[in-house]
Amino acid sequence: MSANGSSAELAFRAASLLKAEPPWEVVAERSRRYEIHLQGTRIELERGPVTAEGYGVRLLRPRGGTLGVGFQASTDVSLEGVAAAADDANAAARHAEFPAKSVELPSGNESAPSVPVVDPKLWSDPLGALRGYVDTLLGEFDGRNGVVPSFGSVKAVLSEVSITNSSGLRAAFSSTTVELEVAVKAFGGPEGRPPGEYWVNDAARRLEPERLERSVDDWCRYAADVRRAVPPPSGELPVVLTTEVLDGILPIVLGTRFSGQARLRKIAPELGSEVGVPELTIRDEGEYAWSPGSAPYDDEGRPHVKTTLIDRGAVGAHLYDALYASALGARSTASARRTTVGPSANLRFAFPPHPEASTTVVLPGDGGSLDELVEEAGDGVLVTQLGWAQPDPVSSEFGGEIRIGYRIRGGKIAEPLRGGTVGGAGLAPAGAASLLRNLAGIGSSSERSGTLVSPPLLARPLTVAGA
Amino acid sequence: MTLLDDHEGDLTKGLERLARRAKFAEMMGQASRGESVMIDTKSTVVSPQPRLAGVVYRVWTGARWAEAATSDLSGRDLEATVARLESELGRAGGSEPPPGESTTTRATWTTPTRRSLEELGREGTIRLGKEVRGWATAVPGIVETQVRLSWQDEERLYANSAGARCLQQTVRTHVIAVPIAMENGRPAFDFLSRGGVGGLERVPGLEEPEVRKAAESSRELLHAKAPPTGELEVLLDDTVAGLLAHESFGHGTEADQFVRDRSYLKPLVGQVVAPPFLSISDDGAFPGGWGSIYCDDEGHPGQKTRLIDHGRFVGALHDRESAAVLGAKATGSTRRSNFLSRAFVRMTNTYVEPGDRTLEELIAEVKQGVLLEHGSSGIEDPLGGQMQLKVRKGHKIEHGRLTDLVGSMALSGRVLDFLRATKGVGRSNGIEIESGFCGKGHSDYLPVGTGGVPVLSRAIVGPA
């Protein structure tokens, strides 16, 4: 599905009003946002449409061996508004310095892949689709004793983006993004234990009510297990990490440390250096279907491609947008991104691009199912959800509280765990331990969580701190 | 002259149209300007604050709230936004009055600034940034330093059908310096971050000794030992104590979670939860605090609320709805991230009130434990009452003395267990508010301040 006229017209109209010397770039976006907020099983608030329309102007001014980069965004679509934004960008460019002599913006001559990122039902009737999804969601809790949703929301952003530049590019695409947040509470019962909660957060490109039955079963089980969970043991243990947990670690570690920014600042691992086990291959795939990290184009309008970041354990590539590619004598990998999924999802135009991961894909291995990884772990811990792994963008160290996990005893899942922490280094220099070097098993079947597609992984060991 | 002057007439007309059909209607118009300058050894990036503006309308349908918003302050989308809510009012058909009391505040506030980055100008700001970078990079072992100086002038106009009109122009200034040390391919960093409502006068410590101290800390972290793991005596420095007050405890006091039956603190109102020497407050009127507000997004003035008073949990934070449901008063805690976001009960500046112990006395009391320094982040667990706090570094404490430097750590455990096990609270002549951003769950980020004094207790320490 292509964008309808409005956002494309805005970008091209703003560009025609720019009166700027090349190179320049204009991105425009028109978005509609709809939200349904829950309080228990009742609808607390319906929001929408929340509309935002705006554009960003980027000017790139060669100056004495460097580039002055100026960017400004605005929601003022009048002639005066465009002129004011261009003045701001010009003024910023006069004072800015970036270590590139020139920049090669995409010309639009390459064709973009067909990437499914628009939910047609959501696009044509957003509130109706959201209401239907919420009905299905709440219906899944009917008849369940001692478990309810206590807090939550389903949000949808319908976005039309257009990008034009002084190299002749005229690209436009549409997308839908869905954010789901549900806190599932288990309570009651004769044992008098405090209530337990499983807190779901996910982003996707489409509503998938047909997946709710299985998901709600899992959420309710986790919420109930939290009530009888105990802290983990302390020690260096085999740890199995689910795709959801890895989504909080790998896209951030790889997206920052493998980026052109990191390479320019000399904190990126060198091409060809060994960073993981030989069985590990990880790609950046901006055209992966239905991922919130995917789209036909990157945010500079370059068609997305597959980039192998880690090839059988060794660094295969770094991620570049046009600017960092120019600075480092490389080619863009179509990795320009303006925002990540989340609260700014419908203000993409308000941010200048920078190199970042799109959809991170860990290729499946031969470790088998989750149960087989657990069996391989022997005596360890399965982590199902971390509070916030929050990897350090410089050191790549991560760690977080276990929100729900399970003790592994004799290769079998045993009692539930909550509390304590698990963590380590995502990447490490040669000879040092890290998550990617300590992999002892790569599952055979992948799932998507957020912008990560990965099988579960077994690391042996990671540091666990508990009772 | 304000940013919204040209549009207030159109926005108010929309509110008046909605007020004719709704039992209650309100709006929040927002516009902002500002700039940030980022400098490192490779580049200088000047980023003007996007020229964003918009308005959100909220109406009570007689049964529930409905909202719509737009970035178009005078054109077809503004008309469509109002029309959409008129249609919703016609469809909903409830007859209940809106929950809680509507404000009638009429006031205007403007942040006074003594040394603003705007007046310093773009060239002056770049000069200052390069000077700060130079101080840090002069420390041997520092390979890179990123410095960012930013200011934002945000205008919020709140008005409602009960007659309130609150216009606040808030200037926030923030500086962060991140010196990166590198050895044998292994990077490490500490950072200096300061911010407040006001100009550079709210950024204490932006001087050479403080910046060098952050750079030296980055270098020392290259050789930090692994932190101890397991349940230990833990001494939180004032920054970590502030994170505890906000993330671990404060989120449980947001009374919209009481209404949802989603707070471990709800059954404990009025009960003793800590020793008598521990008090925690939230203060939206803290002078210059990064999280300070003149009024909230329902028109209630920013104000101080005591949450724990000498060990007793006495107060929660309320918006009009939770106050109505729970028989309390609104506490100036209703905040929207921006015009695109809904309002929630939120904190402002949350901190541990000073006690009577010196830091040395608290260290001397620990046989085997760890001092956690320079808090960096945390995450809430309002129902479960678990905590997760992260710090950049710390020191082991052995037999009452600080020993090895240790690297980043995470703190976990049950908040109530931590509070009840508190053995001492440090003294201070004044609270310094740290600057941060906080979401409600995983979205709706807005500026919040945290602060405090050292707190000694027990918790689980692990990797971060």
Question: What topology does this entry show?
Answer:
The complex is a heterodimer of chains A (about 475) and B (about 475).
Chain A: H1 5-18, E1 24-39, E2 42-63, E3 66-74, H2 79-95, H3 120-124, H4 126-139, E4 147-165, E5 170-186, E6 196-204, H5 212-226, E7 235-241, H6 243-247, H7 250-257, H8 260-264, E8 282-285, E9 306-311, E10 314-315, H9 322-328, E11 336-337, E12 354-355, E13 360-362, H10 370-377, E14 380-386, E15 397-409, E16 412-417, E17 421-425, E18 439-442, E19 447-449, E20 452-454, E21 457-465
Chain B: H1 8-21, E1 24-39, E2 44-48, E3 53-60, E4 65-70, H2 76-92, E5 106-110, H3 117-137, E6 142-160, E7 165-183, E8 186-189, E9 192-197, H4 208-221, E10 230-236, H5 238-249, H6 256-259, E11 280-283, E12 304-309, E13 312-313, H7 320-326, E14 334-336, E15 343-345, E16 349-352, H8 359-364, E17 368-379, E18 386-398, E19 401-406, E20 409-414, H9 415-420, E21 424-425, E22 434-440, E23 443-451, E24 455-463
Parallel strand pairs in B: 5-7, 10-17, 16-23
Antiparallel strand pairs in B: 1-2, 1-3, 1-6, 3-4, 6-7, 7-8, 7-9, 10-24, 11-12, 11-16, 12-13, 14-15, 17-18, 18-19, 18-20, 20-24, 21-24, 22-23
